[in-house]
Amino acid sequence: MYDFAAEPGNNELTVNEGEIITITNPDVGGGWLEGRNMKGERGLVPTDYVEILPSDGKDQFSCGNSVADQAFLDSLSASTTQASSSAASSNHQVGSGNDPWSAWSASKSGNWESSEGWGAKPDGAGAQRNTNTPDNWDTAFGHPQAYQGPATGDDDDWDEDWDGPKSSSYFKDSESADAGGVQRGNSRASASSMKIPLNKFPGFAKPGTEQYLLAKQLAKPKEKIPIIVGDYGPMWVYPTSTFDCVVADPRKGSKMYGLKSYIEYQLTPTNTNRSVNHRYKHFDWLYERLLVKFGSAIPIPSLPDKQVTGRFEEEFIKMRMERLQAWMTRMCRHPVISESEVFQQFLNFRDEKEWKTGKRKAEKDELAGVMIFSTMEPEAPDLDLVEIEQKCEAVGKFTKAMDDGVKELLTVGQEHWKRCTGPLPKEYQKIGKALQSLATVFSSSGYQGETDLNDAITEAGKTYEEIASLVAEQPKKDLHFLMECNHEYKGFLGCFPDIIGTHKGAIEKVKEGDKLVATSKITPQDKQNMVKRVSTMSYALQAEMNHFHSNRIYDYNSVIRLYLEQQVQFYETIAEKLRQALSRFPVM
């Protein structure tokens, strides 16, 4: 059904859309099958890339190659080639070396452009996964570019790939590193892809905020998330000691007797210095759990994307590790996420049994979605509905404006990156070559008194060629970090439309309270409980925004200072080279 490019040395088979293959093993495992093409070549192909043709009395795994079958597939292929080719190009341009952010500006960072605005999806926290989704997502990424989320089968499907401590190498010391990819595979958000009932996703739960607002009596959970009032308003309670997690030492592993390969990363929390290893699929599982549990209250940005082609190339591995590092650091810096049981278990499990037990427990956690607010305890008086609505509107207005600003800077930065790595260096090179050509012409005159001048012009030309190289390399030293920071915040901001939508939905439910009381659908006490609970939600939103603002101020101060420092150094280096070139010219 789709083009698939085999990874060299990985026992995979390249197939093209519309091609007929014979399936020699329908279930190799891990979402792969083994097939043979018309040339007799055999290899692995993703299961979701192929469709079993009607057998017409033939063996059910034999994809017939009759003239009629081929004609049908050819006509089908012709009708879909345009859409598929545009999808493939959008897939692969992400990895272009000169423009690592080409896909960022193209995609939306949230449902900001929705005609109904913030309130369009009042219960949509679970839809955060879709917030970075371009309009043509189903066309461009509707099929897996290798990975469609944690295993869809039973627990054994996951556990057979488990990368627990099989050797002493799983508990090593650490180094520093990084996190990478663009545009998360959001089509994988369907709850069926990870054995979570749909009602565990707030965005799909029919009761929505009513589940929390109208609960007769909230159970007293063991976990408590206090909210205090500090100098800048409501805030989360920060732990007495903080920690980071170093992502390092990417290693290539294999499974299925070496038929399939993967990359695993070493994670070392700075507060324990005890390392564990995780594959990308485990990071993805953590992201899913955090999104399901906290997504109604806390923005959980997507992980870097999964890809097939080139996934073992050194540059891709380095970029992904850089962005995984950034993602983990973000999670470690959040006082609620970092202290949560699921996050701690991800970093501190000791063996396979402990991992599996913690995994199952996390997946059965009922304090998820809007029910996460039932664990929150503001140490402050209840707010009235007018103030609650004003706070919600203020958050919506700011995050929308910041999203616009971040996208603008990403667009401008992307254009500047392309210019600095393309046309601009070439212009300097042209100047350099033109000066050197001129010096060569002057040298042919035979005039004895111009040797010093000709040498100086030649050196000036070489200087401009050196400047060309400096210009081409400079974005990696300054613009890269500014763009990465903006990309991270684009991910955060893309979560807010659904969070705000959840809050607006709750506010609307409370506004309907008097009518419900009048029609005896709820009691006055129920209405009072609704106001109290929406007040708790408001305190949580304000606490999260205060955390967001404090991080935003720190991050942008750091990254823009770095950018300016590197720019100053860059231009000083160029100025010094030009001074040296100038000094070679004779004074007349």
From TrEMBL:
Residue ranges annotated for the SH3 domain, each copy included: 1-55
Subcellular location: Cytoplasmic vesicle membrane
Keyword Magnesium: no
SMART domains reported for this sequence: PX (SM00312), SH3 (SM00326)
Transmembrane portions of the chain: none
Region Disordered, residue ranges: 84-191
GO cellular component, one term: plasma membrane
Positions that bind a 1,2-diacyl-sn-glycero-3-phospho-(1D-myo-inositol-4,5-bisphosphate): 279, 281, 320
Keyword terms of this UniProt record: Cytoplasmic vesicle, Membrane, Protein transport, SH3 domain, Transport
Molecular function in Gene Ontology: phosphatidylinositol binding
Topology term for the membrane: Peripheral membrane protein
Domain of life: Eukaryota
GO BP: cleavage furrow formation; endocytosis; endosomal transport; intracellular protein transport; mitotic cytokinesis; plasma membrane tubulation
Composition bias type Acidic residues, residue spans: 153-162
PROSITE patterns: PX, SH3
Pfam families according to UniProt: BAR_3_WASP_bdg, PX, SH3_2
Keyword Protein transport recorded: yes
PX domain span: 243-354
Gene3D superfamilies: Arfaptin homology (AH) domain/BAR domain, Phox-like domain, SH3 Domains
Polar residues composition bias: residue spans: 104-114
Similarity section: Belongs to the sorting nexin family.
Stated name of the protein: Sorting nexin
Species for this entry: Saimiri boliviensis boliviensis (Bolivian squirrel monkey)
Gene (name only): SNX9
